[in-house]
Amino acid sequence: MGSGAIPLERALMGPYNMIFAGDREEALVAAFKERLKDGRFERKKRTIFPKILDARDLSRFEDGLFSAIVTDPPWGDWERLGEAEVAALYAAFLSEAARVSRPDGRLVLLVGRSDALERALGASGRPWRIVEGYEVLVSGKKARAILLRKK
């Protein structure tokens, strides 16, 4: 979840059933919970669930629970991960995301290394296909927003 921008913006956009927001860092989850106290989220905070979790292990969620997953996974820059490590992280996440997604599930990713994502897609053996991709700049850094669908 990082700063929580994605789940908070989604909450402001309109109807949804539930939003799960997760991060491995307990401090980030605590900061997100504080942001939910903002008046704009007062009525919505009962449907937003911040969790400490690792996207490579979503075992607390049942198969097929999610209709959509939107995420900005680590790009490897701040974590000092090489391309192979980023690809392995993405492959593990893609596998878990496939399991917890509905058959018609969507996955939206913002990635800094789309080549690592494409390697992970090939290695994951999971039913994802790229539907659309857009080149974007994030804080002056090249990135790609990608929509995937289950095959």
Could you give a short description of this structure?
This protein has 4 helices and 6 strands. It has 151 residues and is α/β, with parallel strands linked by helices. The strands form 2 sheets. A 4-stranded mixed beta sheet has the order 3-4-6-5. Strands 1-2 form a two-stranded parallel ribbon.
Describe this protein's structure.
The chain is 32% helix and 32% strand. It has 151 residues and is of the alpha/beta class. The radius of gyration is 15 Å and the shape is globular. The mean pLDDT is 89.
Key features?
151 residues, alpha/beta, two-stranded parallel ribbon, globular
Question: Spatial order of the strands in the main sheet?
Answer: 3-4-6-5
Give helix % range. 25-40%
| Biggest sheet details | 4 strands, mixed
Span of the ends, CA to CA? 26 Å
Number of helices: 4
Average pLDDT reading: 89
Q: Unreliable runs, pLDDT <50, ≥5 residues?
A: none
String of helices and strands: HEHEEHEHEE
Rg over C-alpha atoms, rounded to the nearest angstrom: 15 Å
**Beta strands, count:** 6
Structural class by helix and strand composition: alpha/beta
| Form type | globular
Strand residue percentage: 25-35%
